[in-house]
Write a structure and sequence with these properties.
Elements: E1 26-28, E2 38-43, H1 51-66, E3 71-78, E4 91-94, H2 98-111, E5 115-120, H3 132-138, E6 144-148, H4 157-169, E7 172-175, H5 178-188, E8 195-197, H6 210-216, E9 223-228, H7 237-250, E10 254-259, H8 264-270, H9 273-285, E11 291-294, H10 300-308, E12 312-315, H11 326-333, E13 337-340, H12 344-349, E14 356-357, H13 363-375, H14 377-391, H15 396-411, E15 416-418, H16 427-431, E16 442-443, E17 446-447, E18 453-454, H17 455-467, H18 473-489, E19 490-491, E20 496-497, E21 500-501, H19 514-530, H20 534-551, H21 557-573, H22 578-595, H23 614-627, H24 630-646, H25 675-692, H26 695-709, E22 719-720, E23 725-726, E24 730-731, E25 734-735, H27 741-754, H28 760-765
Parallel strand pairs: 2-3, 2-5, 3-4, 5-6, 6-7, 7-8, 9-10, 9-12, 10-11, 12-13, 13-14
Antiparallel strand pairs: 1-15, 16-17, 18-21, 19-20, 22-23, 24-25
Length: 768
């Protein structure tokens, strides 16, 4: 298997020829035209009859009509109680089936989609208030765009949690009203910089064709009032019917057309009770001859034809919180005079004299407004003209243009550094260090003293300084500080290294985790092999000999791997070291036993992928090399091939296992991505390259190195060669703008691993 591992490749879409001096670091900021993108669109879809399905279908059709170069895959959220066939779907997600969401996320990730656009409404996804969408969003690697169709100012606890979760994952958010934008910022803390307000799209038809369409529908000589859409109590149609007696008294030629089927959810629950109640009300008021019912869910062309026959459109909705109404958008775009209650969408669309706003729950207000327009036909015609002109800004071509701009902002990568391989500056490491050691964490770039120190980071810092210039006094001083920290971490009473120390130099435990003990021993073995200062090397040998035999009792797989790597380093400096050989033999047997439970689909040591995964493979390769057992090398290469395939995106970028998936059995989520994983991948690829001389491993290491420099799922620069600073990870929104010890040291050590590749060509090309 390893001999044919050739799938690792650079992201060719972003590779640029260097135009500057060959030793210069340059930043490239490629612009992404929307026509070059591939989009996954997720929501309900026709033939389902609901507002979200209609809107998602309209998005797809408008993009295909006005942005034909944009690739589009539609994934449909299907209601299992009323499952349908979707001829144009790339995938169908069963709304209440977690496995269906996982399968769709995997398909989307493998497809190399540039962005995923999700239409969100609480009622269309599975779980309480549609909470299944949260885990689905976490599994998507591409940038996420959410259209929030309902933005509640007073959500339930579950609804708030869902919204906060989705907002945290969103690269961009689309809403269709300024009011929704303001609630997102005020109630949910959504950054205003990621919110786009794009008005609901609408059809583009000629103005003023009422007479033609009235004749088609047998309405000649009538003044036509109309409401359309799925019927339900939220429409407030009883108030319009109650207004009819006063309207008909003054204008007996009026007919009120109520077009649309009863909402499917209401129909399933109560049948036609709501419609029948409205019909009874019209009969009781004596206006039933003036009400015309069309109890159908109409296809869009037929619906628009009927809307063209309308003079005045009514939306007497009782709730004032409705932020979007497709029916209102359609009516305005077709130049209809609108009489409406001041719900959110109506307040924004009908301002500046583009419609008539009335008090909610007031049939008298409906009567007065309609009669005034019918009495003053010039005012009615002027209002229709103003509405039509206002509607030009919402037609689907404009919607497609605005959507394309939003998508371009969503996926445009940041600058990608192109530079030959060179050592990062040590300034960031020194800035995080004091006379005690290297502090763990930072707030931004400022060391965070409250979290103190740990042996993990100081062991890594020691490793960096043993590879840095022996003639730099700053490096020599720092090396002694880090060595002193590791030395003081050893607890002779427990025969273990302690890990956490407070800023006041108080140890916070009697012994650290198994993994921290393994890393501490690894730093000692590394120092024995690499340090050119005899005094430090002699100290490391003594510390290693003191601790090594006790470390054999460590049981966790990664602790075993770290101790095996420690032993391999020590043997390189002190061949034939007996305890080190025992550590490697015992560790190899332990890892082999774990691998015996692997399957073809999950060819791994554990049922989970956690942090530092490549270390297990690296330890196996090193064990096989030292013990002369080719079978161990092969196992290490096989598992590393399996893991490496999973850590490549569809377009060839490095995509490390995200920390959100740690501990999830047989699962892998893409975020948050950590610098530690890129370093581990490079180290393991280096071991694989030395074992096989297969150039694919060199290329894979280069791919992981470029992750630091911008070739990643967000096109974000993770590290800076000039300062040696490295950010703490890659999130769905971009970089985590803290720069802690682990990240800085991972970047430094990744460089040293890259520098071990023997070929001058591979050294030269690592940044290209």
């Amino acid at each position: 298997m390893p001999a044919t591992f050739l799938s690792a490749r650079p992201n060719l879409a972003r590779v640029e020829h260097m135009q500057a001096r060959p030793d210069a670091a340059i930043r490239l900021s490629p612009l992404v035209e929307p026509e070059t993108l591939r989009l996954a669109l997720i929501g309900g879809y026709a033939p389902r009859r609901c507002g979200i399905a209609t809107f998602t279908t309209d998005i797809a059709e408008s993009l295909q009509a006005f942005r034909p170069g944009l690739g589009l895959d539609v994934y449909v959220i299907d209601d299992p109680a009323q499952s349908m066939q979707y001829a144009k779907a790339s995938g169908v997600i069963c709304a209440n089936d977690p496995a269906s969401y996982r399968a769709a996320a995997a398909q989307i990730n493998k497809s190399g989609i540039d962005a995923v656009w999700i239409q969100h409404e609480f009622g269309i996804f599975g779980g309480e208030s549609g909470e299944m969408i949260c885990d689905f969003a976490k599994q998507i690697a591409a940038p996420l765009v959410f259209t929030f169709h309902t933005v509640l100012a007073e959500p339930s606890a579950v609804q708030r949690r869902i919204m906060l979760n989705l907002i945290a994952r969103a690269t961009r958010i689309m809403v269709m009203s300024k009011h929704s934008r303001d609630i997102l910022s005020r109630v949910y803390g959504a950054p205003s910089t990621v919110i786009d307000v794009i008005e609901h799209g609408a059809p583009d038809r000629p103005f003023g064709r009422q007479a033609t369409f009235k004749q088609r529908f047998g309405l000649e000589g009538r003044m036509v009032l109309m409401t359309f859409g799925l019927l339900g109590p939220g429409k407030g149609l009883e108030h319009a019917i109650e207004a009819l007696p006063g309207i008909v008294r003054d204008h007996p030629d009026v007919i009120y057309r109520i077009v649309g089927a009863t909402h499917p959810n209401l129909l399933a629950k109560d049948g036609e009770a709501y419609r029948e109640g409205l019909m009874a009300l019209a009969e009781r008021l004596g206006v039933d001859p003036h009400v015309q019912w069309d109890n159908r869910f109409l296809d869009l062309p037929d619906l628009l034809d009927q809307l063209e026959a309308c003079d005045i459109y009514l939306t007497p909705y009782p709730s004032l919180q409705q932020s979007t109404s497709g029916t209102l958008s359609y009516a305005v775009a077709l130049g209809k005079a609108v009489v409406s209650t001041p719900y959110v969408h109506a307040r924004e669309l009908l301002t500046d004299g583009n419609g008539v706003l009335i008090a909610p729950g007031s049939p008298a207000a409906v009567t007065e407004s309609v009669n005034r327009l019918l009495d003053q036909r010039c005012e009615l015609a002027a209002l229709q003209q103003r509405a039509y002109e206002r509607g030009r800004s919402t037609i689907w071509s404009r919607f497609a243009d605005a959507s394309a701009v939003m998508l371009s902002r969503t996926v445009t990568p940041g600058p990608v550094i192109r530079t030959p391989l060179r050592a990062p500056d040590l300034g960031a490491m020194f800035a995080m260090s004091d006379g005690t050691g290297m502090l763990q964490h930072a707030i931004g770039v400022v060391p965070h003293r409250a979290h103190g120190y740990c042996v993990d980071d100081n062991a890594r810092a020691l490793m960096v300084t043993t590879r840095a210039s022996r003639h730099d006094p700053s490096v020599a001083r720092a090396r002694l500080v880090y060595a002193s920290f590791v030395q003081d971490a050893w607890n002779p009473d427990t025969r273990r290294f302690r890990n956490f120390m407070s800023f006041s130099r108080q140890w916070l435990e009697t012994e650290g985790s198994e993994d921290s003990n393994g890393r501490a021993l690894w730093s000692l073995g590394w120092t024995i092999r690499t340090c050119q200062e005899q005094g430090i090397r002699t100290w490391a040998e003594g510390m290693y000999d003191c601790a090594a035999s006790d470390m054999m009792a460590l049981g966790s797989p990664r602790a075993k791997a770290f101790t095996m790597l420690a032993a391999a380093e020590n043997l390189a400096g002190r061949p034939g070291h007996g305890v080190s050989l025992e550590i490697i033999e015992a560790g190899a047997e332990r890892l082999i036993s774990l691998l015996s439970k692997a399957t073809r689909d999950w060819h791994w040591f554990e049922p989970v992928l956690a942090y530092d995964n490549p270390r297990l493979c690296q330890a196996m390769i090193e064990a096989g090399r030292i013990l002369g057992r080719r079978s161990l090398v092969e196992k290490g290469l096989e598992t590393l091939s399996w893991l490496s395939e999973r850590q490549l995106s569809a377009n060839g970028n490095f995509r490390p296992v995200g920390s959100e998936s740690f501990g999830r059995e047989y699962d892998q989520w893409p975020f948050d991505q950590q610098p530690l994983e890129a370093w581990a991948a490079i180290d393991a690829a280096s071991a694989a390259y030395r074992a096989t001389r297969n150039p694919a491993w060199s290329e894979y290491a280069q791919t992981a190195w470029r992750w630091f420099l911008g070739d990643n799922d967000r096109g974000a620069i993770i590290a800076d060669l000039d300062t040696g600073r490295c950010w703490d990870g890659l999130t769905p929104r971009g970089v985590n703008r803290n720069s802690g010890a682990e990240s800085i040291l991972s970047f430094q050590l990744a460089y040293h691993s890259m520098s071990t590749f023997a070929s001058p060509t591979s050294r030269r090309d690592t940044g290209a």
